[in-house]
Amino acid sequence: MNSRGPDFLRAFAGMAILAAFYLVLALVPGGGVGAGDVKLGGLLGLSLGWLSWSALVAATVLGWFIAALVWLPLQATRRRPRGSLVPMGPFLLFGALLTIAVVPA
Asked: Looking at CB atoms within 10 Å, which of 19, 20, 37, 63 has the fewest?
């Protein structure tokens, strides 16, 4: 019988790490994330941590990268004010889904 204990611990560690990371960003002035992103980060950390550490890191980086690809042109063309917030949830979810689709099972 194969034990899933290490996967379980990695999942909860991933949840704690990502939730803490987004909580720090939410509390820092100008961090640009809200409470919903903190909650979503915890849930994504749980599910991606179950897969692997590399999946967790890849999905997080990919989500932020996609958000930057969308946000920077909007800011450069002044379609959004400089201090306006970007809802990160859709980008984080898209990065996670892309990573889950690519990571081998």
From this structure: 20
